[in-house]
Amino acid sequence: MRNLKFTLFVFCLLASPLGASAEGLVHEMKVGVLHHDQDNLWSNTSRESGIDGNIELIFNADMPLWSGALRPVVGATLNAGSDTSKIYGAARWEIDISENFLFALGVGIAAHNGETALVRNDKKALGSKVLFYFPIEAGYRINERDTISLFFDHVSNAWLADPNEGMDTLGIRYGIRF
């Protein structure tokens, strides 16, 4: 948990006015509230519970792709209780569907502080400490700087290890462009 707190500190530092200027590293910062280990989605099961806080930095470096932009991101999802938290890095593709609506997909890797084997019935057995990370986001651009969005992510080891229970989170996020 100490490593996750340090990571959160680094994110906040990068998003400060010095790091977030137009010439800085950060294009946008997202913060959100997510339902932890959501049942009946990709993973199809839930063992853990609670609320997660999420913070993500989307960097300025971009590559045009299929009428959208591909950008690197780093983030952290911290569970408010004692269940699994994670940090992640990904490539995020975002496209503006219209003037106000956006859609984004990503792929990356995540590291977590949860269990790899089934040791308790109320803890996910994720199989390995490093997992694949798949986010999906649909949002509304309030103005040029602010967005609100529905956010989903899934982590699992893709059956490269056993067990592979996977975990899904679902919630809302607020984004601010710099």
- Helical content stands at under 10%
What CATH calls the topology is Porin
- What spatial order of strands do you see in the largest sheet? 1-2-4-5-6-7-8-9
How do the helices and strands follow one another from N- to C-terminus? HEEEEEEEEE
Briefly, what is this?
With 178 residues, this protein is mainly beta.
Main attributes?
single chain; mainly beta; Porin; 1 helix; 9 strands; elongated
Helix and strand arrangement:
Layout: H1 2-14, E1 26-35, E2 51-59, E3 63-65, E4 68-79, E5 86-96, E6 101-112, E7 130-141, E8 146-156, E9 167-177
Antiparallel strand pairs: 1-2, 1-9, 2-4, 3-4, 4-5, 5-6, 6-7, 7-8, 8-9
Question: Can you tell me about this structure?
Answer:
With 178 residues, this protein is mostly beta strands. It has one domain: Porin. The protein is 7% helix and 51% strand. The protein contains 1 helix and 9 strands; from the N terminus they run αβββββββββ. It has one helix at 2-14, and strands at 26-35, 51-59, 63-65, 68-79, 86-96, 101-112, 130-141, 146-156, 167-177. It has an 8-stranded antiparallel beta barrel. A hairpin with a 4-residue loop joins strand 5 and strand 6. The radius of gyration is 16 Å and the shape is elongated. Residues 17-22 have low confidence and may be disordered.
